[in-house]
Batch of 2 targets.
Target 1
Amino acid sequence: SQENGICTAAEECQCMDKTSSSKLLNKGGTVVNADRQQQADIYIEDGVVVEVQPNIKVADEVRVLDATGKYVMPGGIDPHTHLEFPFMGQETIDDFFSGQAAALAGGTTMHIDFVIPINGSLAAGFEAYAKKAEKSCMDYGFHMAVTTWNEGVSRDMEILVKEKGINSFKFFMAYKGELMVKDELLLQGFKMCKALGALAQVHAENGEAVAEGQSRMIELGITGPEGHTLSRPSMLEGEATARAIRLAQFVNTPLYVVHVMSIDALDEIVRARQSGQRVIGEPIVASLVLDDSKIWDPDFTIAAKYVMSPPIRASGHNKALQAALSTGLLQLVGTDHCPFNSTQKEAGIIDFRKIPNGVNGIEERMHLIWDVMVNSGQISVMDYVRITSTACAHIFNIYPRKGAILPNSDADIIILNPNATFQISAKSHHSKIDTNVYEGWEGKGKVEVTISRGKVVWEHDRLMIERGSGRYISMPPFGYLFDGMDKIDSAYLSSLKAPVYR
Ligand SMILES: NC(=O)NCCC(=O)O
Ligand SMILES: [Zn+2]
Ligand SMILES: [Zn+2]
């Protein structure tokens, strides 16, 4: 019902709330941060939190939101999305407006998207994504993918970190012939990340072996979506995770493993962390709550919607990842929201290798993590805040502006009713994708209100959003993961010199 952010149909209004006040009082809820929960009110002015105290008194003109009996928490931050992503000959169906509208309806108030270089140029990729994101209706940041290596790339990395607010670079170890990089590039890239204080991220799968596995399936006559899963077993995720971890250890730089899908990858991350290495593991909603059963569905449209990489694994991996998340072995939850319509997925109807990879999740993450992790008793509400918001803000160095409800924090806040129910369906979701991998899910714990920088943008199941109102969030380098790294380097250098000069 909207064009250019302007309401065109009153009966299904998603327009900007012209009456929205710049002063707001959240009254009577349980305010939850990652380290504390309390009964308190929250006073918000001009997009930021001013006060968090019990019984705040305000003037009559201030809008009051009653949160009695509900949890008031920092808005979700999704560390892993792909909006308007050109991939496998297609482009993801959600743009920065529709994807963010979906996010806000699900209680996520910031996301970090992956910029893809253009013909290897990071600068050109960044400019293109900055343009795409002009239509944003919520705050966002960027990671940058590195797909080739030359002097221009290392120069661009430096400019992006020092001038453009990027503090993380992703290296794809899979997608041979498209985004995949070799170990030589990983090493150069990790070294540059270390020098710049930027976090190295990996898509960890052995891309050479995946290509071999794909040929094997085709030779066996397995051309359907199940061929995708069979061609890239979890051992290949484990191998690449281990390799990236070792290389990061060799360079002595922190590492962030995106979309952890398997026990194999989890085991490598846990082993590295136990040995003191700084490795962050990001499971995604799909790896936590789904299993691979639907990939064998005889209906191509159903099976193809689950095709993503690394693949959604057999039941058992999901439970292990949940347990790891609940005990802090994994640190935060993303979505890898990468939505392709059923018609786009049909590109691979006779050859699974051509099915564009990706699943939805930006709108569902907050609800599903609540339902699966909090309702089951696996985590506390404070843990929920940590894994959906605060940890991400810490890792990407934007805390406490984001990821907290504290004086001076951005007023990105959700009100969740633990007694209300939610249902997931492609018929009612806000993403443009025509399918949903969580179709039919019914659960308890509903985000009833989303506040984005002090504006109520989701209430009574309606969006009130404004195209172009979202801001780019610059993320400074040398976050906490880099603290003390220089001391480890010095100790290493001294240990080398000692035997030489004796
Ligand atoms: N994961 C996936 O299948 N699609 C998005 C690209 C990526 O993150 O690897
Ligand atoms: Zn990936
Ligand atoms: Zn991704």
Note: The pocket of zinc ion (ligand 3) is lined by residues 80, 82, 259, 336, 338 (CB under 6 Å).
Target 2
Amino acid sequence: MSSVKIECVASEGFRIGESPVWDEKEGALLCVDITGRKVCRWSPAAKQVQTVPVDAPVSSVALRKSGDYVITLGTRFATLKWKEQLVTTITHVDKDKPNNRFNDGKVDPAGRYFAGTMAEEIRPAVLERRQGSLYTLCSDLSVVKHFDQVDISNGLDWSLDHKTFFYIDSLSYSVDAFDYDLQTGKIGNRRSIYRLEKEESIPDGMCIDTEGKLWVACYDGGRVIRLDPETGKRLQTVKLPVDKTTSCCFGGKDYSEMYVTSASDGMDKEWLSRQPQAGGLFKITGLGVKGVPPYPFAG
Ligand SMILES: O=C(O)[C@H](O)[C@@H](O)[C@H](O)[C@H](O)CO
Ligand SMILES: [Zn+2]
């Protein structure tokens, strides 16, 4: 058994840290602070976080083939030029829903950017239900809507053979799978592969490892869990020193480290004083598994 080590590498006090992505070219960990309205880049070499402030809640960031990044900002897909700190809108969704914003997003193995929306929260996990939809931004910059009636569109990833799409609508307390057609980007045949137990609380961000197992960050559960999508069994639980663990990704050398983001929104003074690292970025080593490099957006 390897020995698992957890370290808070950046105690940024993020309001809602989310969407960790390893940027191999920069040797840095990208993430966003949704309600803090900034995109962040943590460099382990410099032990330093750079941030780009934006003008709306920014809920995900992804690499782009042509360099730089794409983000989901408010209800927009946009590009982000890091050095210039320049954000350019690509397209809007949910135009008829002014109270909506994007939430989690990730690029598929063919370079399509998947991201879903939700109503703005009144407080954590309290919001107008079924206002969200799941979208894809294709490389030709057209948008496809897959379905609506989503509560909190959250974690997403693809199986190693690219034939299954995994997805979380948080308030269903379920991790779902769809058949995936990589050629067309179409999804179908939705089913649940895992239902969270009470103490695991709310499923949030998710990533896959090189053994095809899923890692799910549990919001208010203070943990990441490893699931076998074939058997529907939980294989491992790793607890963190903060309750509001929001998302996870692999990064670092050979993608052997796991990075976990966290949130502090919705915590009162007493709670924050018990968990001073709330909103920090955590690095987990010694898991004995590796991750899959993130796919860049092809447009
Ligand atoms: O991190 C996210 O994906 C949402 O934007 C958060 O707000 C939490 O998930 C939510 O509060 C949990 O219910
Ligand atoms: Zn999330």
Note: The chain has one domain: 5-285.
